[in-house]
Structures are given as C-alpha cells and as structure tokens.
Predict the 3D structure of the following.
Amino acid sequence: MWKLLIADDEPKIRRGLRRVLDWNDMDINVVAEAEDGEVALGLIEKHEPHILLVDINMPFLNGLELIEKIQKIVPECMIIIITGYDEFEYAHKALRLKVYDYLLKPVLKNKLKDVINGALKELKEKENKDSYEEWNKKQLKGNIQTIKETFIKRWIYEDIDEEEINKTLKFLGWNITIPVGILGVKTFKRNYTYEDKKTSNEKIKKTMEGILPNNTYNFIFEDGDHIILIAPIKKMINWLELGAKIDIQIREELQIEVAMAQDIVEENILNFTKTYMKLKEDLKSMDSYTPVVLYAKNYIDTNYYRGNLSLKEVAKVSQVNPDYLSKLLKKELGMTFIEYLTKTRIKKSLLFMEDTNMKLYEVAEQVGYSTQHYFSRAFKKIMGTCPLNHKKGNGSS
C-alpha cells in the first residue's frame, strides 16, 4: 500500500483529513500524524511516506523549512500543502520548491480526492519507470520473496516490455530461461473456511519445497486461490515426474484434495504471460467438476505413462463403479475414459518431443505406448499428422 502522513497543528483538521476519504479503498495507509514540523520530520524519517499532507504554517519548523528537509530524505515523496487564503502567497513560494500541489482550507472532499488520485497516478508512473537497480541491497536481501512476487504479478497483469523483463531478471539474479515450467495447485474442497485454506496452502507450499531440488531459481508464491511454482526445466521427463510427485504427496501425505495444472513456456520469454493465464484458466475450468471426476482426472494425469492403466483401476481408486465413472467422465469432460487418456498421452508426448535428443520410440514408451506404431496411430488421430512430421516441423529429426 501507499503510505500517507498528515502534518497539521490543528487536531480537528488532522481528524478530518483521516476520516474524509476511505484511504484503504484507495490502497493508502495513513501511517502517522504530526502536530508540528519537528515531530513530522522524525516521523517522515521513520516511515518514508509516499504522500505528505502538510500545513504550510506549523510550530517549531515551518512548512517551507520542512519541505526542504523532506526532499533530501524522501525526494520522491508527493508533497501536498494545506494552506489558508491568508497564506496563499506563502504557498506559492512552496510551489517553487517543486511540491506536487496545494489545497485551500477548508479542504473539500472532492478536491482532496482529485489531488490524491493525481498524486497516485504520478507515483504509479514513477514506479513503472524506475529501475529496480535503484533499490538498495538491504531491501533486496530482506524482501526478495515479496520483490519477486511483485515483479511476477506485474509481468503477468501489466504491460511491461521485454527490455524491462530481462533487466529485472538480471538484477534479481533470477535465471528464468526457456524452457521454464509453471505448475499451479488449487485446493478443491468447496466448504473450506479462510483459515482452513490458509493452513492447507502453507502445508502444500512446505511439501512442494521439500520435493524440489535445491535450486535458487525455483520460486513458489500465491496468486489468489492458486499456489504457483516456477521452475527451470533441464529434462522434460524430470519436469513431468516432479508434477506427478507433488500431486501424489499432497493427496496421500497431506490428505488434501487439489486441482493441479502443469505447463511450460517455450520459444520466447514473452510467452510467459500467455502460458500463465492459460494455466489459471485450466485450473478455473476444474471448479465445475465433481470430486469423483476431479480425482479420476488427476489420477489419469499422473499415471498416463502406464501402459496398462484402465478404467477399472481408475474407478477403484476413485471408489466408484466403472460404469458410473464412465458416464461421469463423458458428462463432465465430454470424453470417454479412453479418449481422455489418449488426449492426455498425446499432450504429454508433445512436451517430450521438444527434447530433440529423444527418439520417437522413446517418446512412445514415456507416454504409455508399447510400440511406436500404436503411438503414431493415436498421435495422428488427435493431431491430424504423424509424429515424425510434427518433429520435423519443429526443426527436429
């Protein structure tokens, strides 16, 4: 949140300024109030506010003196002067000190809101333009998780260019290179309380951290209801096995029902946002599934590589009758068991085929086909072309 400090020697005005607007709704936290210039200076040094509402004429240290000192401590602070008509000329001198704006007493609600919104706009523009290199090392070291999370969310939800992306990644020492994997987990129990979900998410993150290899480039964070893992990919098979391991441990050891989606960013780092949003949409689409279908779907997603995987087995672990499960899958996924299993296997095969060193028979084995022939036939049915042509089309042999 943006930090706001109010400095005025009149308690009534301070109370009025604090109450006149819904500061939280504007993403602003009123961090402190000061009744004179000297107190204000100490609080400004302590809190380093983004916005300062300051009376032009206060005891001990008047407005102009205070402003000069403030600009040395927090040069980016948006200073808004509060003045009366009889101090108007005095206020004009302050404007030459490059304060943001001034407000005449009595301060009108709409005028205050307009000025604050203008200040916020400038602060946001500065934040977007300022280089992360200007952050000092102490902030970086102590807040690396928050900084990375903030950057990732800006990358996803705001329009930042490739130059800024690469510059920030370099500054953070975060080697996100192509291909990079994104994995999303979402607790599925619909009657969770907020505290239940919070506790479950903490357990899930801890479990994921325990499974992950010791790699500084792995990053886990929360985005709304989702727990997100970003990780480098050396071998596709390791990435897919990692997803299966995470899913199994969450379900079997934590006894938490989750929806999980896994994808990779290919070709260009600029595809990160597109892949990320697609993964979140995949997770969102699972909200409509019944627990039985979600469990069965996830079981198929993590056991697709087994050539003998059957509807009977999936129904048994899902604790339902095979015919009943078959009907549910068709109703909710729009596919039969075999159709969904085949689609899943072919989707996974596309990831394996990104590894140019893998032969087609090896890809076939990794996704549950006993021979390259059966794999090719299934691949052509789903993709409309044979796997060999697909590999050639992607610059592979």
